[in-house]
Amino acid sequence: MTPTAARVRPRLAAALALLPVLALTACGSGDTATTPAGARSPAPADDPVAAVRKVDSAAALLPADVRRAGTLRVGSAVGAPPSAYYPGGSGKEPEGQDIDLTDAVAKVLGIEVRRQDASFETILPALESGKYDLGTGNFGVTAERLKTIDFVTYIDDGQGFAVKKGSATLKKKVTDLTQLCGLTIGTNAGTTFETTLTAQKHVCADAGKKPYDVKVYSENGAALTALQQGRIDVVMSTINGLRYQAAQPAAGTAFLGEYHRLDVGFAFKKGSPLTKAFQAAVNELIEDGTYARILKKWGTSASAIDTSRINPPEHT
Question: Which of 142, 134, 152 is CA-nearest to residue 76?
C-alpha cells in the first residue's frame, strides 16, 4: 500500500458522502435532508500530489514510534469545496485542498494517513483525548484554541459573509458587525464564526440598534437552504468557501468580501511531537512548488503563505 492510501470511515460517512457541492464550506458536515438541490462539482483533474517523494530530513523529525508504525490517525471534517468534499458521492474518496495537502505532507514524511470522517466540532476535543493524532477541517488559529491545541499552518483563510444573490438587505462588504444589526445571520456550530458573532453581539446595543440574531446549523447545507429560502439574511463562513460557492451559478449567492483573516493549520494535541515534522514537510512543499500547484488547482492561490509556522499568534 502506498503512503496516504488508507482510509477509515465510520457509518456516518454514508450520509456525509452525499453532501452536495453547494453547501457552505469546511466548518461542519453535511446531510442531504437539509441541503438544496444542485449539480455536483467534479474535482479538478490535476494531481500535483502524484510526484511528491519522501524527504529524509523531514521524515527524521518524526518520533521513532511513528516512523516504525508508518501511519497516523486523522480526524477529517469533510464539508464542501474547495477544502474537502465528496465529488463522487457515497463510497468514493474525498477531494479538496485539505485532502491534497495532507496527502502531500504524508508522502514527504513517508507515512500513511488513516482518515476518519468526523463532525467539525468534535475533532479538537478528540485530539485532546488521543482519539486522533491530528485533525483537518480548515481550523483557524485563534488565541482561545492555542490554549489547548498546537497548529502547523498551511494557508491564510478566515471569515467572510455572503447573501442571497440580488438581496437588497446587505449589498456592501461587511467591515463592522454593526452593519448586521437587525439581521438574522446563519453560521455553523463550533466555529470561529459562531464565537465571533456571540462575543460581539453587544455591539448593536452599544450603538443603540436592534441586535442581530444568530442561527447556528450543524449541517452546512442547512444554512444555505435557509439563506435561499429567506429564513436568514446573511451567512458567515470561510473566505475561500464563500468565494468558491458564489462562483457556482446554482448556489445563488453573492460574496460580500473578507471580514477577518485567520491562519489555518493542521491541528494537534498540545505538546504534540509531530509539529516540527509537519512544519518541515509543508515548507518542503512550498519550496518545491507542489504547494503552489495544489492551491492553484483549488482556486485558493490568494491565500498562500510564504512559510509554515507553529502556533503563530491570532491575526489582529
Answer: 134
